[in-house]
Amino acid sequence: MTAYAIETNLLNPDIFPQAKGPPHSLFAQWRDKDPVHWNPVNPNYAADVPFASIRKGFWVLTRYADVSEVSRDQKRFSSYDEGFVIWDMDDEELVRQRANFMGMQPEAHMAVRRVLNGPFAPNAMRALTPKIDGLAAEIVDSVAAKGKCEFVFDVASKLPVYTFCELMGIPESYRDAVVEYGNALADVETRTARTVDPIVPLFAICEEICAQKRANPDDSLISTLVHDTTLGLEQLHINMFFMVFAIAGHETTRSTAAHFIYLMNQFPDQFALLRSDVDKHLDNAIEEVLRYTSTTTNFRRTATCDTEVGGFKVKKGDKIYLSYAAANRDPAVFENPDAFDITRANANRHLSFGVGPHLCLGNALAKLEMRLLFTELLARIEALGRRQSAPATSQVLQVADVKMDILQRKVTRGSEVISLSPREFEVLTFFLKEPGRTFSRDEICERIWQREHEYDTRTVEIFIMRLRKKLDEGRPQPLIETVRGVGYRLNPAA
Predict the structure, then answer these.
(1) What whole-number percentage of the chain has pLDDT above 70?
(2) Are residues 262 and 305 in contact, defined by beta-carbon separation less than 8 angstroms?
(3) Structure pTM?
(4) Which of the listed residues 384, 419, 447 is the one where a domain comes to its end?
(5) How do residues 344-387 score in pLDDT, each as one tens digit?
(6) Are residues 403 and 364 in the same domain?
(7) Which residue range forms the structural domain that includes residue 434?
């Protein structure tokens, strides 16, 4: 096929400003007229990072089918040969890229992936759900008390890193430092302005934790990587894995969460629809935000042989720009692709987490984090709305010395104010409404979450444990009692 000449150069920074996102109108032109577009070198282009440059032109793929084909074919299109980003790296950085889980040779990549599949499997995610839910409540509680926050850094960036630390077995004392350096790495301007590259202290943290795990092995993921001799991993490989999850693992969640807030503000009709039935719409709303915004906009592959893509001839050594952002707006796959629609039937077909062998390992975890975070935030919004619209009267429930003002969302025990997450508040509400009655774990699960979702009776146990800690710790008579083999009840005599 013969290329259709479109002169615009993707390396012109004026057409791809970070603040405005991908140039979708340009991608639409290319997808229609020149879907395998040759983009020449821009001699005036300066890479955003000091160890990279653009030495040669590259092919830009804008059709969903072409991006998917190249992403799936590791034999013809390599992420190892010249790295997986569009920049041309210096030798030191290329070594790092090849040590990166995402840039390994296919055989090594699959071997590591097999080891990592377990912690990211559905059963593992279900087991982790209560912990992530608690972290989400903890983070939202911390900003709710202030009355204001910087959403990206105070909320969105913390949950994925806190979860990452939990998953990896990283002590809590490190997590705020990992947040700081992960944010610095994700934000290019901040990174380049620092006198010390944040990679250095992040690697130092990883090496310190690895030393601890070598001395005292446990069942954590980082300990597994340290002690699995079949993988042949060096410290650099583990450092890079650590860094990928500290940056990419949290950047996707951070950015998507920020985009979620922005889009719900921009499209109030969609927000109203979401609020009308959160259980029904939230999961698909997250998928649509991922499709519409394409947090991961692109990756690179290098042709390993003379071949064809989409009917166009590509030479061995040519580099290829996989535009996930363009693929996610392809009208051949997504009807009316420039519309933001949280009811879109195939929103989950987006390529924002990649596709094929390099499908993001943490994609299910990222969506779980966002689901739990926004469930928490939406519950707080609803509670605030009820409080602001409610008359000046109160509806008070009381058992023993525990008082709950339902309209003010305030709980006290004696003179102590008890801070509860929205779900903890709901659990305590129906306990207080029927003191002495025993509720089974299944009934509690059904009342609070209305459907199975990711929750099971183990989750109920976690929530009861958290309620007990807040209400009963340090008191001689527990308020919440376990009825062995049946469930839980509130003791009116406590």
Answers:
(1) 87
(2) no
(3) 0.76
(4) 384
(5) 999 999 999 989 888 888 888 889 889 988 888 887 766 555 54
(6) no
(7) 396-490
Q: Among the residues of 172-311, which ranges form H helices?
A: 175-186, 188-193, 199-215, 221-227, 235-266, 268-276, 278-293
Q: Across-strand partners of 307? A: 314
126's tokens = 């279900």
Tokens of 61: 């793929």
232 and 116 within one domain: yes
**Same-domain status, 455 and 339:** no
CATH of the domain at 435: 1.10.10.10
> Which CATH number does the domain housing residue 282 bear?
1.10.630.10
Buried (b) or exposed (e) across 267-291, using 16+ Cβ within 10 A?
A: beebbebbeeebeebbbbbbbbbbb
Bridge partner residues of 321 (DSSP): 60, 300
Angle subtended at Cα 56 by Cα 53 and Cα 62, rounded to the nearest 5 degrees:
100
Place of tokens 């929103």: 347
292 and 338: one domain?
yes
Q: Which phi and psi angles does 398 have, rounded to 5°? A: -145, 130
Same domain flag for 367 and 417: no
Q: State which amino acid sits at residue 272.
A: A
CA distance 356 to 334: 20
